[in-house]
Write a structure and sequence with these properties.
37 strands, single chain, 7 helices, mainly beta, about 15% helix, about 40% strand, eight-stranded mixed beta sheet
C-alpha cells in the first residue's frame, strides 16, 4: 500500500512554531502485516500468533497451509491456553494495562484485572500469573479451581518452565534460577552465585539449560542436572560471543548467537560438535518447536518486517508464513569499532547526490542495542534522503559485560565523538539527531553540550533528560498520550517549561509507548522531515 503524505503539518497536540518548508515527501513504505514476538504452538502443530495490519494487533491461526484471522480477538497479543481454550491479553488504549480475554481468568483476580505476565501449562489447566502492581507470583490450578502463591515477591519475572514428568517448576526471576515442586515443600536456588545474569531456562528431561555471563565477559550456555542438586553447572557452549535462548531437541542444541548486533539462530549437534547457522543475518526474536518436526520463529532483517517463519528440521528448508519482503532501494552496512568510535550501522539513501542531511541515532534502552532490523521510521527517513548512523555506544548489549556495564559518561563521550566525526566528515551537510525512548536522555545531554553542531533533533516517545530542559537546539517531540512509560502530561510540562519557540511537540491520542497505527507512523515521519527541512 502506498500512501502520500499531505504537505501540511497537522498537529494532534500543539506547536508554537508552524513549519513552512516545501519538500516533496516520498511515498510511505508500509507493510501488509507485522508479527508480534510471542506466539503459541498447539498440539496439532497449528500456530497462533498476533500480527498488526496497520491499525491494531489481532490473533491469527496458521494451519500449515493458510493463515486465518480470528475475528473475535481484536486488539489482542501474547496468546496462551487457559482452560483448554485460546486466550490472549487485550490492550485497546496502548497503555499496557493488559486484560485477559477470558472471563473465568478474571474471576480468579477480583481485586485486579491488569496482567503483567502469564505462563500456561497442561493445556491451560495450570497457569502461572503475575498481576500488574502486585509482586506476588500466583499459581492457578483450574482442575481444583484454586489460586495459590508460588512466590510471595518477584520484582522481575523472566521465564517459567514446568516439567510434566517431574511435576516441578523452574522459575527465572530476579536473576535467579529457582526449583519449586508443585506438590511438596522442596524449594531451592540453582546456580547460587550472583556475579552474572542467569537467563532463558529450558527443560529437557531432568536437565535445565540456560545462559549466563557468570565469571566472564560473554554469555555461555550451561546445564544443571536437577537430579543432582549439589552438582556444579556443566558448561555446554562457549562461543566467545554472547549466546542466548538455548533449547534442546534430540541431540541438537539450538541457541541464538549475538554478533555485531545481529541475532543468529544456530544449531549444534551435541554428539558430533558440528555447528550450523539457520539464519545468516538479521534478528531472531523467539523460536519454538512443533510436533511436525518444524521449528517456528519470529524473524526480521532490514528488508523483512517482523514475520513468522517455518524451518523444516529434516530437510533444512525455510519459508515465511506471510511474504513481507520489501523491495527497497536503500541499503545498510556495518561500521566496525575503531579506537575512537563505537561500532555502528549506516543506512544509505537511494540517491547520494540528493542527500538531505546526516542523522545520528540514539537507540532506545541505554543497555539495549541496535540491530539491522526493519524499522519504518528509519527506513522512511533514509528513503527520503537522510543518511543515518546508529552506533552501539558503551552501555549497549552484545559486546561483552564490561561494555554493557559502562557508565553513562562513557556512552555520552562516545556519542560526542561520533557527532564531531560526522561534522568533520560531512562539511556543508546539516547534522541532525534522533532518539527513541530512554535514548533521548543521552541525546539531550550530548546535544546540549554541542549545540553548535546540530541543526535540529527529534525524540520518539522520549524520556526528558531533566525537569528543567533548556532546549537550545530546535527539537520536535513525538508523544503517545497513553504512554505507560513516559508520562505524556509530564513531558509536555517539561517541554513548555523551556519557553523555547524552537521546541515543538506532537501527540497521538491512540498511541502508547510506540506506534501501532501506520497512519501515525507516516504522519510522524513526515513531521520530522519537514521540521528538519525548516531548521536545516
Amino acid at each position: 500500500m502506498v500512501i502520500w503524505l499531505a504537505i501540511g503539518f497537522l498537529f494532534f497536540g500543539c506547536s508554537r512554531t508552524a513549519v513552512e518548508c516545501n519538500i516533496e515527501i516520498r511515498p510511505f513504505i508500509a507493510v501488509a502485516m507485522e508479527t508480534d514476538t510471542r506466539f503459541l504452538v498447539l498440539d496439532d502443530g497449528d500456530v497462533i500468533f498476533s500480527a498488526n495490519s496497520g491499525q491494531s494487533f489481532s490473533l491469527h491461526r496458521f494451519d500449515g497451509e493458510h493463515t486465518h484471522k480470528l475475528d473475535s480477538f481484536k486488539y489482542q497479543r501474547f496468546p496462551f491456553l487457559f482452560d483448554g481454550k485460546i486466550t490472549a491479553l487485550q490492550d485497546k488504549d496502548g497503555n499496557e494495562k493488559w486484560r485477559a480475554s477470558d472471563e473465568l481468568f478474571e474471576n480468579f483476580f477480583p481485586e485486579s484485572n491488569k496482567v503483567r505476565s502469564v505462563f500456561s501449562f497442561r493445556n491451560g489447566n495450570l497457569v502461572v500469573v503475575q498481576m500488574r502492581d502486585d509482586p506476588t507470583l500466583y499459581l492457578l490450578d483450574l482442575q481444583n479451581e484454586e489460586r495459590s502463591i508460588l512466590l510471595p515477591r518477584v520484582n522481575q519475572l523472566h521465564h517459567v518452565e514446568f516439567s510434566e514428568e517431574g511435576n516441578y517448576f523452574v522459575i527465572n526471576a530476579d536473576d535467579q534460577l529457582l526449583f519449586i515442586e508443585k506438590e511438596g515443600d522442596i524449594f531451592r536456588s540453582l546456580f547460587r552465585n550472583s556475579d552474572g545474569h542467569k537467563l532463558n531456562p529450558f527443560l529437557f528431561n531432568d536437565l535445565v539449560y540456560f545462559a549466563s555471563n557468570e565469571g566472564g565477559e560473554f554469555f555461555k550456555i550451561y546445564a544443571i542436572n536437577l537430579k543432582l542438586p549439589e552438582a556444579d553447572p556443566i558448561l555446554i557452549l562457549d562461543a566467545g560471543l554472547d549466546v542466548k535462548l538455548p533449547k534442546r531437541k534430540g541431540d541438537d542444541l539450538f541457541y541464538m548467537e549475538v554478533a555485531a548486533g545481529e541475532y543468529f539462530l544456530k544449531r549444534k549437534n551435541l554428539k558430533t560438535g558440528e555447528i550450523e547457522s539457520i539464519t545468516k543475518r538479521g534478528v531472531v526474536y523467539d523460536y519454538s518447536f512443533s510436533g511436525n518436526n518444524q521449528l517456528i520463529m519470529v524473524y526480521t532483517d532490514f528488508w523483512v518486517p517482523k514475520s513468522l517463519y517455518i524451518y523444516d528440521l529434516a530437510n533444512r528448508s525455510i519459508y515465511s508464513v506471510a511474504d513481507n519482503m520489501l523491495d527497497l532501494t536503500i541499503d545498510y552496512r556495518y561500521l566496525p569499532a575503531s579506537e575512537e568510535l563505537s561500532s555502528a550501522y549506516e543506512f544509505q539513501p537511494p540517491d547520494a547526490s540528493s542527500l538531505q542531511g546526516v542523522i545520528l541515532y540514539f537507540h532506545p534502552g541505554l543497555h539495549s542495542d541496535f540491530s539491522p532490523r526493519w524499522d519504518p521510521v528509519l527506513a522512511n527517513l533514509t528513503n527520503n534522503g537522510y543518511r543515518i548512523i546508529a552506533p552501539n555506544y558503551p552501555m549497549s548489549f552484545g559486546f561483552g559485560k564490561k561494555f554493557n556495564k559502562a557508565d553513562f559518561s562513557e556512552g555520552k563521550e562516545d556519542m560526542i565523538q561520533w557527532l564531531h566525526h560526522l561534522s568533520k566528515e560531512n562539511k556543508g551537510i546539516p547534522i541532525y539527531t534522533l532518539a527513541a525512548s530512554s535514548g533521548n536522555i543521552l541525546m539531550e545531554h550530548v546535544v546540549e553540550e554541542n549545540f553548535g553542531i546540530v541543526k535540529a533533533t527529534a525524540s520518539l516517545f522520549g524520556m526528558p533528560a531533566s525537569e528543567r530542559y533548556i532546549g537550545r537546539v530546535p527539537q520536535i517531540h513525538i508523544l503517545g498520550e497513553n504512554d505507560p512509560i513516559v508520562s505524556f502530561s509530564e513531558s509536555v510540562k517539561r517541554i513548555e517549561y523551556s519557553g523555547n519557540k524552537n521546541v515543538n511537540w506532537i501527540s497521538y491520542p491512540n498511541e502508547g509507548h510506540w506506534f501501532i497505527k501506520s497512519e501515525n507512523t507516516e504522519h510522524a515521519v513526515g513531521s520530522i522531515i519537514k521540521f528538519f527541512c525548516e531548521k536545516g
